[in-house]
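Researcher: Good morning. I'm working through a list of sequences from a screen, and I'd like to move beyond sequence-only analysis. For each chain I'm collecting a predicted structure so we can compare shapes side by side. This is the next one on the list. No need for commentary yet; just the structure.
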Amino acid sequence: MEQNLTTFQEHFQDYYKEVVPLGNLHILEQSNASEILAIFLSLDMQGFNTFWQSETLQQLCEKYCKTLSFKGILQVQYTLLLNVQKAFLKQPKATQEILKNTLLNFEILERENLTQSEVLDSIKAYFNAIIATKIAQKEASDSTQDSKQTISQKLIEDFLDESLKILQSQKDVLTTHIAKDFTYLLSNLAPLESLLQKVQNQHFSIGITGVLSSGKSTLLNALLGKEILGSSTIPETASLTILKYAKTPSARVSFWNTQEWEDLKSTMEESALLALFNNAEFNVAFKEYVQDSTYTLEISIDELPKYTSANHPSKICNLIKKTILFTPLKFLENNVDIVDTPGLDDPIIQREEITKNYLLNCDLLIHAMNAAQSATQIDRDFILQALQNANLSRILILLTHADLLEQKDLQAALDYTKQSIKAALKNSQNNSDIELLFERLDFIALASYPALICQSDPKKAEELGYNLEDSNFNALIAYLNQTLLGKNSTKAKDIIYLCAQGFKRVYHDIEKAILLEQNLLFAKEEEVESQIINAKKEKEQSQNALDSAKNALDSAKLQCKEFSATLQNQLDQKLQNAQNLLNERVYADIIYEYEKGRIPSNERLEYLLDLGLKDLLSEILRFSAQSVEKKITQLSLQLQTHLESILKNDDEIVQKKDFNLHLNPILLQKTKAKILNRVIKTAKSFNKNKKDALKSTLETDFKEGFLEFISALIHQSNALENEYITHFEGLLNTAQQQLELDLKSKENILQNAINNLHSNTAQKQEREQTLKQMVHLLEENLQSLNALQYYTTRGNDA
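Model: Good morning. Structure tokens for this chain:
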């Protein structure tokens, strides 16, 4: 198979050199694998433009591509070719049969003139090479096994650090050679150091969520190996807590600022507020800590309960926005943070809002459920929201308290959890998306209390008959290492893959410059002069392309500004209509109760608002999101031509960037709470003889209650548009820097060529040897990088 690897690189290295694979698409496991392979692999740009509207291709793209675009097709093609290679190692005979049928499908497509792909001949040659490979010979099998063992010894146990050593060594050796013989290329090496720094500064964040009694605190303590969170140190933690590594234990609490407190107060019940301010200790803390800007306080671990516990008599926890706990625990040592949330059923809406926004930036989410009460409505709603709106690649659903159930009951709980989530997905998604979303979920059952006791009190664990293996804690740690924290984790492989990709881009640019000098070494004067003229034209064309792209970006900025004003007017109108409708409903109901000699109950008013707000405001949310995404898509298409003409090496950056508007549904809860508190107060302040005053006050209640809703929509819209503009500005700046580097290198090479016109043959031959040695070094480095990237895409058997 080593020969096939070389063949693969020779055939496809240039064609797919800037394409990032997607991982295992599981296409080869399908019964119609050969048909899917033939469709995807036969497509080129012309074929895609011809058939992109066909139902078959759209369905395949929807299932396997990130986007309906030719770049998405290229990603799938490259991934399939890598998957074929991996499949042949595991199931050679079955893979050969799939490839034979795929070749037959290629023949049909060619016979019907449905493909003219320039790379198809290379794919067919590659498939034929695999089909022709003899798999029965023991020698070949042993050779493959030896190769895998060699790779394993060097990389598997410490892939991240070993890869870094390889990359650092390449950079050091290359820098030495270029400093000696190619000083005009030194500036080209600058990106290598930043790429290495990015790898070394990687940071991992694990979010832990769950409702009350989900076993979240015990799970965290088990992960940390001792009783840090929970009844002994932070009983009933009431704020967002971030755990970070530090040699000396300490804590930092952040309080709501004045504006945030006013916002929070507007959603709290009046009786709850009165109870807080009747507490003398709370009053003192409020005056001291709630300031115009966020106040932070450094405290000892022993003081934490006073500030973060819902059970502490001072109730100061209600003033805390978040807590950072610094602790010298080994689990946190390698740039790992844990985000501990106060619970999805947090009574303080603003804190839940901060929690959910914070979780969007986590690398992994662990959602704890009590095995005996799993998959509640709150659980299902949260998981659906996280799957659809977050940037999380994986979500681990952990069934806690597994030791309290019999094995058959535990299995039944696990099956029920999976079925419930799948059913919820089915009700909210297109059928084609369900499996893809469900594949992002993992499930583990854990006896978290026994796992904690085994680590914190081994003697007690022995007395109780607990051990880590039975608790399934080792399975959890293995999962974390495999997906995120381990030196051979999926995360580590992704990091090294992207770093190697960056190194390859730099090497290709340097190699291009070296080859140009090599071609000009023995050139005549007129050839050099011709190249100089062409270089001037290229510089002018590049500058024109950049200027054109910058003008297009300026136009996009102006369009964004105009769009924001238009969207504001549209949202104001829609909200006014919703406000009028709700106002009439609530007014009519209050008058009806007045006529009966009653004041409407709080529950009745909440029911009326629930009935109207959910549908009306959800529709406005959808309209806002769709409008923004449509506008950004339109602007992206306008800039696409400009970007592709100058960003040849960074096309994938444009494709991968997600510019979808993710609106937090808690905004609906906040709006309802604000309006409800005002309406309850108004209903108690009037009677049937003051109908006009009642109507006027209700109008003010709704208007004031809706203010933040519209403001939040516009703010998020503007933030997304600014992110879009900033992203493309960054791309253009990168393009400009790269073009300037390339053109400067070319100018230096051409100047050297002029200087070398009068050099003697011996000097030119000596320089030629130096150039060849550099090309050889670059090729060796590229092969090493290809091997690293190949390893990262081979999955668990790598």
